[in-house]
Amino acid sequence: MMGNPIQTYRNTTIQTADRGKLVVMVYDYCINWCDKAMECAEAKDLPGKLSAISKVQSGITELTCALDMEKGGEIARNLWRLYDFMTWYLAQASRSGDHEKVRKVRGLLDDLRSAWAVAAENVRKTNASLLSGAVHGIALSV
Known about the structure:
This protein has helices at about 5-15, 20-40, 45-65, 70-95, 100-125.
């Protein structure tokens, strides 16, 4: 019996992506759920907004867990601080109902996503072997 073709495609995309592409995909996931949280907030759909914010926080947790603090040095530490701030700020948005906080987190995620996309592409061109290999813990539900 055939499974869901869309889910099969998504699974294949994730399983065959290099590490740089996976990081960008997690950023895309977070950005999409930020958009959903803002849509729900504007529609006064509190349960939908809280669910969407929770998914953004899950994505940020994945990004945090993927950091290699030893090899990443100061950049990894700074990303950890940013991810920690974003998670806290989203929790504040959940409590206060201020969806402008979600918009600000989305802006940070968008900037970081753009930087990662450029960095991954540059590495692909110069040393693709750095992007190969497994990334632990990338498991996001849509």
